[in-house]
Design brief:
By secondary structure, this protein is mostly helical. The radius of gyration is 15 Å and the shape is elongated. InterPro entries: BPSL0761-like.
């Protein structure tokens, strides 16, 4: 089972990976453009952690668990 902080960390790492792909001139232009297109609509680190913080507040004291965490741990 994936924990909320693991899920948040993975999303943040994917953002970094897309940025690496965009900068890698050894990749075909089409691949770099696709990474750029995906990144344009991808949540930033700050947005992911904020979403985790909001989910933690909304689920506190309930039977529900947050999907994301406000920490990368």
């Amino acid at each position: 089972m994936t924990l909320p902080y693991e899920r948040a960390r993975a999303i943040i790492q994917i953002e970094a990976f897309l940025i690496e792909l965009i900068k890698d001139k050894s990749l075909p232009l089409e691949k770099r453009q696709e990474a750029q297109r995906l990144l344009r609509h991808y949540p930033s680190r700050k947005e992911v952690l904020l979403a985790g913080e909001i989910e933690e507040m909304l689920t506190s004291g309930t039977i529900f668990n947050p999907m994301l965490s406000s920490k990368e741990e």
